[in-house]
C-alpha cells in the first residue's frame, strides 16, 4: 500500500492534506479516486456539477500556515506538464510510488472556486467569499415561502437564524439600497410625476374593497401596478430557485437568468396567512441560495433587492441583502384609505412609488451590467459598503479582514457573530496597510474619544460620521493590547483615574467603565479606553435602554443609580474605579496569604 497526499485549497482553514491510499498492483482513474477521497473525508462537500482540474505537484507540507497560499500560487502559474488528465491512471503519473517524498503535496485539486481564489491576491477576501457561498447553501429554506410564514415551527427554523429582520440595516451593505433609504426619509422633498399620482390613486381605489381571495385582488390592482412599474411578471415560477413563485417581480436578464430585483407578494386581507414581506424574504433566500445564481454572479454582488408587500390597503416597502446571512430592513409601511385623508395618502404613495422606481433603475443597471466588469479583487459581500449621510464626506478606503467579537475582542470568520449584540465591529486595514477597527453603533461620542486620544488614553480616531441606516461609523487605530483581567495593578488603576479625570473635566461621563472596555499592554505600559458608545454629558446623558443589570455572582457591576435609560453621573465612573481598586486590594491580600 502506498500513499499520496492531495490538497484542496477551498477547504476551511486549518485543514491540510488528505491521504489517498494506492494499491501498488491496482490502478484507478484519477478523478474518480480523488472525488471518493474528498467525499469520504468531508461528507458535506458537494463537488457535483463542478469541473475538477487536477495538478501533479511537489509542494512541501511545511509550513502549514502558508500551504494554501503556496498551492494557489502553483495553480495560478502551473508548469507545462503539471495538469493531469482525468481519465489517466495513477501509475501514469506516479510510476514509482515508493520513491516520492512523503512530506509533500502530490496532487492539487482545483475547481471554479479555487480558480477564483487564485485571482484574488488577498487570502482573507478569498476565504470570506467562499464562506459566504457556503452559508448560501445552508440558507436554503426547505419549505415554500407561504408554508414557512404560516407555521410557527417552520418560521422559527428560518427567521433569526438564516433571515434576520431589522437587525443590521441593509443600507450598510448596499449604496443602491442606501439611496432608497435616504429618499424615503425625505418624502416631502419628492415631487412625483402626474402619471405616478394617477397610478397611486388608481391603486388605492382598487385595493380598498375586500376581495374573497388573492387572485381577485391581483386582477384588481395589476393595471395600476403595471402602469407604475412596467409590465411585471405575475405568478410565474422561478425554476432555478426551487420553483419559487412570487406574486410578481421585476427582473433583469443575466445570461440565461431572469434575475428579480423587486419581489411583490400579495395578501387580500391584513393578518391572514402571514406577512407578505416575510414571505418575500423566504423567496429571496431561495434565490440567493441557488447554485445557478452563485455560478453566474460569484464575487460580483451581495444581491440587493426590494421586497414589496401588498395587503388590502397596506403597502410595505422592505429591502434585503445577502452577506452570508440574509438581512431584511423594513423601510416604510403605509396604511391607505379613501376617507378624508385620501388626497394625502395618494400623494404619499406616489412619492414612495417614485423613490422605488428610482432605486429599481439603479438595481436593473446593477444586475444587467454585472458580467460586463470583472469581479473586484477586494469585494466581499460579507463586509459593509456604507453610505455617509453627508454627501460631502469621504469614507476612508478600507480592506476588511474579519469580524471582531463584541465580548472578547477576538477576530473570527464566523459571520453569524454579527447577529449578536447591538454593535458590529470589524478588523480592517487602510490603504497604507495601517491596522484599524471599524465599528458601527447606534450612537458614539466622538468628542470624548478625541479628548482621550489627544492624551494618549484612547486609540487614534481616523473617522467618525453618520451613515445611512441610523448608525455611526467609527474607524480607529488597532491597539495591540488586551482587556484588563480582574487582577489589576495599582499603577494601571492610576492611569484609569487620570483618563476619567480628563473626561470629567469636560463634564463627560464615560458610563461603561468595565474591564472589557479598558485595553492594556503590559510590555509597553500603554492603556486605552475603548467603546465610547455610552459616553454622555453629566446629569443629562442617558444610559442605553438595553443595559444589562445582571450581577456576576454576589458582585455588583454597576453603581447605585445606574439603570436602563437612567441619567449618567460622574459618581458612576468613580464607583467603578473604587470597585476595581477594591478588587485589586483583595487580590493582593489573597496573594500574600497563599
From TrEMBL:
Listed InterPro entries: Kinase-like_dom_sf, Prot_kinase_dom
Domain Protein kinase, residue spans: 312-594
GO-annotated molecular function: ATP binding; protein kinase activity
The protein's name: Protein kinase domain-containing protein
Species of the source: Agrocybe pediades
Lineage: Eukaryota, Fungi, Dikarya, Basidiomycota, Agaricomycotina
Amino acid at each position: 500500500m502506498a500513499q499520496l497526499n492531495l490538497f484542496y485549497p477551498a477547504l476551511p482553514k486549518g485543514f491540510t492534506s488528505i491521504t489517498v491510499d494506492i494499491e501498488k498492483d491496482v490502478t484507478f482513474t484519477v478523478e474518480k479516486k480523488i472525488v471518493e477521497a474528498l467525499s469520504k473525508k468531508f461528507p458535506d462537500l458537494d463537488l457535483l456539477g463542478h469541473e475538477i482540474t487536477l495538478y501533479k505537484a511537489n509542494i512541501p507540507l511545511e509550513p502549514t500556515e502558508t500551504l494554501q497560499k503556496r498551492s494557489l500560487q502553483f495553480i495560478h502559474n502551473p508548469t507545462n506538464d503539471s495538469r493531469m488528465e482525468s481519465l489517466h491512471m495513477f501509475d501514469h503519473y506516479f510510476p514509482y510510488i515508493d520513491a516520492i517524498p512523503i512530506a509533500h503535496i502530490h496532487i492539487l485539486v482545483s475547481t471554479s472556486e479555487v480558480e477564483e481564489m487564485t485571482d484574488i491576491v488577498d487570502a482573507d477576501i478569498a476565504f470570506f467569499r467562499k464562506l459566504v457561498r457556503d452559508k448560501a447553501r445552508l440558507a436554503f429554506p426547505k419549505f415554500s415561502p407561504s408554508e414557512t410564514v404560516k407555521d410557527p415551527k417552520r418560521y422559527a427554523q428560518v427567521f433569526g437564524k438564516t433571515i434576520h429582520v431589522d437587525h443590521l440595516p441593509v443600507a450598510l451593505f448596499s449604496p443602491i439600497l442606501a439611496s432608497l433609504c435616504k429618499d424615503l426619509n425625505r418624502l416631502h422633498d419628492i415631487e412625483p410625476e402626474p402619471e405616478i399620482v394617477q397610478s397611486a390613486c388608481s391603486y388605492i381605489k382598487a385595493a380598498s374593497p375586500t376581495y374573497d381571495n388573492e387572485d381577485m385582488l391581483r386582477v384588481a390592482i395589476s393595471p395600476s401596478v403595471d402602469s407604475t412599474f412596467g409590465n411585471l411578471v405575475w405568478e410565474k415560477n422561478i425554476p432555478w430557485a426551487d420553483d419559487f413563485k412570487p406574486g410578481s417581480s421585476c427582473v433583469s436578464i443575466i445570461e440565461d437568468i431572469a434575475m428579480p430585483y423587486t419581489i411583490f407578494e400579495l395578501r387580500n386581507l391584513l393578518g391572514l396567512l402571514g406577512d407578505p414581506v416575510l414571505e418575500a424574504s423566504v423567496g429571496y433566500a431561495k434565490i440567493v441560495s441557488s447554485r445557478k445564481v452563485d455560478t453566474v454572479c460569484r464575487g460580483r454582488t451581495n444581491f440587493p433587492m426590494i421586497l414589496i408587500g401588498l395587503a388590502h390597503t397596506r403597502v410595505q416597502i422592505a429591502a434585503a441583502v445577502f452577506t452570508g446571512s440574509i438581512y431584511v430592513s423594513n423601510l416604510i409601511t403605509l396604511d391607505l384609505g379613501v376617507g378624508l385623508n385620501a388626497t394625502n395618502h395618494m400623494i404619499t404613495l406616489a412619492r414612495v412609488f417614485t423613490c422605488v422606481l428610482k432605486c429599481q433603475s439603479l438595481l436593473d443597471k446593477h444586475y444587467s451590467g454585472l458580467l460586463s466588469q470583472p469581479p473586484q479583487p477586494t469585494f466581499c459581500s460579507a463586509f459593509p459598503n456604507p453610505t455617509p449621510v453627508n454627501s460631502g464626506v469621504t469614507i476612508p478606503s478600507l480592506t476588511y479582514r474579519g469580524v471582531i467579537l463584541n465580548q472578547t475582542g477576538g477576530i473570527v470568520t464566523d459571520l453569524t457573530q454579527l447577529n449578536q449584540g447591538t454593535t458590529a465591529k470589524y478588523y480592517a486595514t487602510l490603504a497604507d496597510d495601517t491596522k484599524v477597527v471599524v465599528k458601527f453603533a447606534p450612537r458614539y461620542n466622538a468628542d470624548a474619544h478625541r479628548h482621550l486620544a489627544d492624551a494618549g488614553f484612547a486609540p487614534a480616531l481616523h473617522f467618525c460620521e453618520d451613515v445611512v441606516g441610523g448608525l455611526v461609523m467609527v474607524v480607529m487605530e488597532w491597539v495591540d493590547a488586551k482587556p484588563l483581567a480582574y487582577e489589576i495593578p495599582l499603577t494601571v488603576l492610576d492611569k484609569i483615574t487620570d483618563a476619567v479625570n480628563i473626561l470629567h473635566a469636560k463634564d463627560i461621563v464615560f458610563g461603561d467603565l468595565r474591564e472589557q472596555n479598558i485595553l492594556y499592554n503590559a510590555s509597553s505600559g500603554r492603556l486605552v479606553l475603548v467603546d465610547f458608545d455610552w459616553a454622555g454629558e453629566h446629569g443629562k446623558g442617558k444610559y442605553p435602554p438595553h443595559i444589562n443589570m445582571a450581577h456576576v455572582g454576589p458582585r455588583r457591576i454597576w453603581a447605585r443609580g445606574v439603570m436602563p435609560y437612567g441619567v449618567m453621573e460622574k459618581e458612576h465612573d468613580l464607583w467603578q474605579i473604587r470597585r476595581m481598586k477594591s478588587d485589586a486590594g483583595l487580590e493582593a491580600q489573597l496573594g500574600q496569604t497563599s
